[in-house]
Amino acid sequence: MIEDRLEREAVDPRGYSIESLDDYYDRTVLGGDVTVRTRKEKYENIEASSADVRKGQPVYTGVLKYFPNALKEVASCSLAGNKQHHPDKELHWDRSKSTDNEDALVRHLIDHSTNPMDNDGVLHLAKVCWRSLAALEIYIESRGK
Fold first, then answer.
1. Is the pTM of this model over 0.85?
2. Distance, CA of 27 to CA of 7 (rounded, Å)
3. Which residues on neighbouring strands pair with residue 37, listed in sequence order?
4. pLDDT digit of tens for each residue in the chain (145 aa)?
5. What is d(CA 13, CA 6) in angstroms, rounded to the nearest whole number?
């Protein structure tokens, strides 16, 4: 068993030295069939305002540089939604308009398989991404982070 080996050798399977088993946590993957021992990140116990946490969230190099075209498409989707719902107002997220982000993103994913473009000229996948980001933002806010 991996726990026995970790205690005996004080090295994880990837060769990291271990100060204690508290440096790890178990997570379940593959529908609950497999438990993986995962090394905790250094910044998990640091205050959210610290530079180390910010450096552990590479927004530009870890997201924007990877997906510039996709993010521009999601931004266009956002603008189209604002023009549809609030043509007379500045671009903003009206959270009261739709509270079913998860259901909507799945509907758009299904619709994408039939026709990639929605009736309003916006790609269904862009709407999937927008709804996914909205759901993630709301979830993170609800946890108080």
1. no
2. 19
3. 26
4. 444 444 444 554 445 455 556 666 666 655 566 666 666 665 455 455 678 888 889 999 999 999 999 999 999 999 999 999 999 999 999 998 888 999 999 999 999 999 999 999 999 999 999 999 999 999 999 988 5
5. 8
Nearest to 130 by CA among 59, 90, 70: 70
C-alpha triplet 112, 76, 100: angle, nearest 5°: 55
Helix axes 68-85, 124-142, angle to 10 degrees: 90
Q: DSSP label at 27?
A: E
Contact at 8 Å (CB) between 12 and 18? Answer: yes
Q: Cβ(20)–Cβ(34) under 8 Å?
A: no
